[in-house]
Amino acid sequence: MANENHNEEQEVDLNQLLQIRREKLSKLKDEGKNPFEITKFERTHTSKQIIENYDELEGKDVIVAGRMMAKRIMGKASFCHIQDADGKLQSYVSINDLGEESYKQFKEDDIGDIIGIKGFVFKTKTGEISIHAKEVTLLSKSLRPLPEKFHGLKDVDLRYRQRYVDLIVNPEVKNTFLTRVKILKEIKKILDEKGYLEVETPILNTIAGGATARPFITHHNTLDMDMYLRIANELYLKRLIVGGFDKVYEMGRMFRNEGMDIKHNPEFTNIELYSAYEDYNDMMNITEEIISTAARNVLGTTVIDYQGTQIDLTPNWKRTTMIDSIKEITGVDFNTINTDEEALKVAKDLNVELDEMKLSRGEIINQVFEAKVEETLIQPTFIYDYPVEVSPLTKRKPSDPRLTERFELFIGGREYANAYSELNDPIDQYERFKKQVEAREAGDEEANMMDDDFINALEYGMPPTGGLGIGIDRLIMLLTNSASIRDVLLFPTMKNLSKE
What we know:
The protein is an alpha+beta fold.
């Protein structure tokens, strides 16, 4: 539809447009028609309800409201499109129905204004379901023009900063977030039906624990003590297992003071769940079920496209150990390498750049995996049996104490889930915390802190437990074919423009 008002606006600069719109508002106020004084507007239907129920609504009066996205003035009659939460709907507006004064006001209304329309439902000659307006009410004045109609808001950085505009002019963005909501509901439904109890744990922590990450630090004035925004909720959830809850989960925000890229945002959504008397094999099964079921029930398929690559989420995903996966890609079998020195030589022969602070055999195995294997794992793959050095909260593997009963899920070369047979030996846990503290004192800001109260909880006895964490934002990226984590966060963290 042509948009005469909008095209005219393009011919003047932004400052003039802002001034013109403010002058219109001042005029309305002078006439006693201030739209911002309206407190309520009763609607009878949404655009979707009218379109879906046209046969029974034809010829009947309805009342709708939304943002005016287009307008075509044709003398004594006009057409406009309004957009509400469900979609767009056309309206026919004429001087004969509104009267001269109201029609004149409608002609003065701008693209972006929020209006209410009362009228009867009909179809135009072209077959478009529309409303024949009897009354038009200006409900809110838009003092800023929307981005140019045919190109929309394309500046990616601006889209993230001004998500409210992005949602208005790019309808597919809203669909992404509606899909996100459906996926989260589906995940919770699966867990609720399996007897998991949804709980809440503290976001402000006295100790940053439960993950290997650098925390955000804040200060509590009344207690005069530093506190940390949680990097994980693991240790609190396991305290609940100690307390007698057999199955618990929490979905919520985590905070990590680390780098930002297409896969990382300082605050992100994670779900962790714990089940007493189960192990990491059970966690593999439920991970597979959660993701495949969410895809099937929300998207209608378990075969999806992600950035040009077909991913098959149908159950019976590949499962292989970390050491076997390295052997498959590089030919190197770390089962035959028993010393730090041998592992270091192998890594150098493979041209793997190592962290100089992490040169034990287990840490080197993990770094070789990350450098050589991770990006090759395109179809869903569980990598399990991680070295103990990189798994401070995980139960050792009985057949090889150098390894732990831990897995991570990889899809498209990225990690999506992390799970353990949880360590419930308080003596072993204390010794591992001590090694983490030593690493922290040596300069590793991501190493775990000593959590004496968690050790105290374990000393009361925790049953054998399986635990799982899934990165929700990455999962939403996968299931909505979104290239960046910022595409699935309504308000991603952005650099302050004043600092640039």
